[in-house]
Amino acid sequence: MERAFSCDTHNMIRQPLAKVKGKIVMDEKKLLGRITVNPDIFGGKPIIRGRRLAVEHIVGMLAAGDTLETILEGYPWLEREDIQASLLYAHKMICHERIEPFLMETGS
């Protein structure tokens, strides 16, 4: 069965500190609070908790097939919630994005 998520984020991160499948899950606002912007770091790109690790880097590692465990091993200070926050931030950035076809007229 296919699952579709709207831009209103998935139910499991709406509760302040909810227990989902036996795990404590942070709410959306708290998660997004982990994502910061500092004009002196990476030109103001979104970073994780003020550190020199960009959200795009985390998303890129996941897209390349890295596991959560591999990423967490590579960055000992990083927490699972930081990765979840990165994905939530990316989702928020693209959820209203539309691709419009660019039609070019040809000189026939």
Question: How would you describe the overall organization of this protein?
Answer:
It is built from 4 helices and 4 strands, in the order ββαββααα. The longest helix has 15 residues, at 80-94. The chain has helices at residues 28-32, 55-63, 68-74, 80-94; strands spanning 17-20, 23-26, 35-37, 46-48. A hairpin with an 8-residue loop joins β3 and β4 (46-48). By secondary structure, the protein is α+β, with helices and mostly antiparallel strands. α2 packs across α4. A two-stranded antiparallel ribbon has the order 1-2. A two-stranded antiparallel sheet has the order 3-4. The N and C termini lie far apart (47 Å).
In terms of structural class, how would the helical and strand content be classed? alpha+beta
| Tally of strands | 4
% residues in beta strands: 5-15%
Q: How would you write the strand order of the largest sheet?
A: 1-2
State the helical fraction. 25-40%
Overall residue-averaged pLDDT value:
82
Q: Cα-atom Rg, whole angstroms? A: 17 Å
- Determine the number of helices (DSSP H or I, runs of at least 4 residues): 4
Specify the biggest β-sheet.
Answer: 2 strands, antiparallel
Shape estimate: elongated
Taking pLDDT < 50 over at least 5 consecutive residues as the criterion, the unreliable ranges are 1-5, 9-17
